[in-house]
Design a protein that fits this description.
With 251 residues, the protein is an alpha+beta fold. It is built from 6 helices and 10 strands, in the order ββααααββββββααββ. Helix 3 packs across helix 4, helix 4 (102-119) runs antiparallel to helix 5 (204-217) and helix 5 runs antiparallel to helix 6.
Length: 251
């Protein structure tokens, strides 16, 4: 069945711009409203910047593991999994810092939001959370969603464009927030840093967490990310050379 119209909405949630582009106006605004309601709930519960959030209370020792919600247990489980996978380079618990699982929370929250859209009957949509993107179906019959990869040196330029159907793509870099991703093994920025790393996967929990972990690893993260099940990689090294996984759907 062809696309009949579009419902678009953009809001600032979780400290970043989030947009939903739903290509079926027959579903109305309700699915999109549910997405933003969910993301606001996640922000209130899991933000390390809110002193009353579940994450902050757990980080201060006010909650035991047995008292945590199922959702936070899952998120922390993913954090521990990636800490083990990277030999400690990826960490939600850095020495001298508060618990910060944001590298997992955003991707997981958007992945859950995609589930909300699908349960409402949405089949063709694009959800963009601060540049990390989930696409589904087609923007128009016979077409694929086109997702740009920002040039790490020039904000108004792209260094690649992906042509996607059902997929998730996330990028980790220092060009927006500076050196905010640390190598958990040293507590410092990666010794051989990347300019950016983009990961394509089936879901945004995997894509976003893998991209962050790869960036924390530095140059060794390219090969590590490319070996993760179901992941493809586009990375720009500090010397401006590019790695691109074979078969990456570049337009």
């Amino acid at each position: 069945m062809g696309v009949t119209g579009t419902v678009r909405r953009v809001e600032q949630v979780m400290g970043l711009p989030v947009s939903v582009d739903l290509r079926d106006e027959r579903l109305g605004e309700e699915p999109v409203r549910r997405v933003f309601d969910w993301l606001r709930e996640v922000d209130s519960r899991f933000s390390p910047f809110r002193p009353d959030s579940e994450v902050s209370r757990f980080g201060r020792g006010e909650l035991t593991e047995d008292e945590l919600s199922v959702d936070l247990r899952y998120v922390l489980g993913v954090c521990v999994d990636y800490q083990h996978r990277t030999g400690g380079a990826f960490r939600a618990w850095l020495p001298g810092r508060e618990l910060d699982p944001c590298a997992v929370v955003k991707g997981w929250a958007v992945h859950c939001a995609v589930g909300l859209l699908r349960r409402c009957g949405a089949r063709d949509f694009c959800l963009n959370a601060g540049g990390d993107v989930v696409t589904a179906g087609e923007p128009a019959p016979g077409r694929r969603w086109r997702v740009g990869i920002r040039h790490p040196d020039q904000a108004d330029q792209l260094c690649g464009v992906l042509a996607l159907g059902d997929a998730a793509v996330a990028t980790s870099a220092a060009y927006e927030r500076g050196a905010h991703i640390m190598d958990g093994r040293t507590g410092l920025p990666p010794r051989r840093p990347l300019l950016s790393v983009t990961v394509l996967a089936a879901d945004l929990t995997t894509a976003d967490t893998t991209a962050t972990a790869a960036f924390a690893l530095g140059e060794e993260g390219i090969g590590w990310a490319a070996e993760q099940p179901g992941c493809s990689v586009f990375a720009v090294r500090a010397d401006r050379t590019v790695f691109s996984s074979p078969g990456l759907p570049l337009a």
